[in-house]
Amino acid sequence: xxxxxxxLVDLRASQRTVQVPTNAIPATGALHDRLQRPxxxxxxxxxxxxxxRCNYCxxxxxxxxxxxxxxxxxxxxxxxxxxxxxxxxxxxxxxxRLTGGEPLLRKNIERLIEQLATLRTPEGKPLDITLTTNxxxxxxxxxxxKAAGLQRVTVSLDGLDxxxxxxxxxxxxxxxxxxxGIEAARVAGLGPIKINMVVKRGTNEHEILxxxxxFRGTGVVLRFIEYMDVGATNGWRMDEVMPSAEVIxxxxxELPLIQLEPSAPGETAERWGFTDGSGEIGVISSVTQxxxxxxxxxxxxxxxxxxxxxxxxxxYDLRPLVRSGASDTDLASAVGAIWQQRSDRYSELxxxxxxxxxxxxxxxxEMSYIGG
Length: 372
Ligand code: SAM
Ligand code: SF4
Ligand code: SF4
Description:
- This protein has eleven helices and 13 strands.
- 26% of the residues lie in helices and 16% in strands.
- The protein is globular, with a radius of gyration of 20 Å.
- It has a domain at 11-189 and 295-370: TIM Barrel.
- Helix 1 (78-90) packs parallel to helix 2 (109-116), helix 2 packs parallel to helix 3 and helix 3 packs parallel to helix 5.
- The chain has a 13-stranded mixed sheet with strand order 1-13-12-11-2-3-4-5-6-7-10-9-8.
- The chain is of the alpha/beta class.
C-alpha cells in the first residue's frame, strides 16, 4: 500500500513572542497551568538530525539530502541549555529527558550531561536525567554516558526481525547493532532500561510477541507505543494504529498479564505484569486513550523554543531572551507566565480537530524537531 507523504512546510519559523511579565513570577517549584497541571518533566531536543529515517517520524521523501537542518549557530549551547533547564528545575521540573533527532549525534553530549547533573530541585535533590536513543551509537558511548551522570536510557526498537527492522529504519541498519547497544547500556548500569516499540499495523505487529518473549525476565521494560499522528509528514492513518487494548489481548494469548498500579502521577505508560513474575511491560495509548489531564511535560527545541504539547503548532522562542542578557529571574518569570496560561490537550480534542491541525493555529511541528 503506498504511503501518503505530505510535503513539509517549515513551521519552525512560526513562533510566539516571549515577554517578561511586569509582575515577577517567582520560581517556587509549584507552578500550575490553567488545567491545574504542574510542570515536572522537561524534554530537551539536542539535535534535529538523525541517522535513521523511520517512516513514521522522518520519511526519506521529506528528510532527503537537501533538507535544511538547523545551522550550528541556531542551536542552544550546552551552557544555555543548562541555564534554561535550571530555571525549569526551579519551577518544579524533576526529570530531564534528552532527545532529538538522535541525541547521541550531538557532539560531546557527555559534557552536557555533566552540566545537567549539577542541577538541583528546590528541595536540593539531583534531577532524574534520562535519554531516548535509537541505540545505533550506544555500544560505543554507554560507558561515557554513565560516567557523565546519565542515569537511564530508553532505546527505540521496533522489532527483532532484521528485515523488518532494516526496512523500518529505512537506512538498512542491522538490529544486531542495536541489541549490542542495549547490552552495553545494561553493563554500564544505565538501567532500568526501557525499550520503546512503535506498533504500526501492517508493518510490525508480528514482532509484538517475539519482542515480549525476548525481553521478559531480563529486567528490561518493553513499552508498546501507538503509532501517533505527530508532525504533518508521516501520512498517518487511523487504520495503521493498533490500539493498546489489542496489543495486550494479543500478548495474553501466550503470556498472561495482570494490570499494575501506575508508578508515578503523569506516567504515560499503563503497566502490565507477567503473572508468572517474570517482569512487566507498558502500553502508551496516546491515540486511543488521552492522558492530557495530568500531562506535566514541556519540550525545549534544539534552538530554544518552548513547546507546551507534542502536537503544538507554535513554540515560544526563549533564545532571544537567553541571549539578550536577561536575568534568571526574568527568564523564570517568562517561563512561569507561559506555563500558567497553558491549556493544551490535543489528544482529548483530536477527534474534533481538522487533519494536521495542532494546538494553536496552524499545522503541527515535527517530532524530530521537538523530540519525543
Ligand atoms: N531518535 C531517538 C529515538 O528514536 O529514540 C529519539 C527521538 S524519537 C523522535 C523519540 C521517540 O518517538 C522514539 O521512541 C520514536 O519511536 C517515537 N516516535 C517517533 N515518531 C512516532 C510516531 N509517529 N508515533 C509514535 N511514536 C513515535
Ligand atoms: Fe530518528 Fe528517532 Fe525519528 Fe527514528 S524515531 S527517525 S531514530 S528521531
Ligand atoms: Fe500532553 Fe499534548 Fe500529549 Fe495531551 S496531547 S498528553 S497535552 S503532549
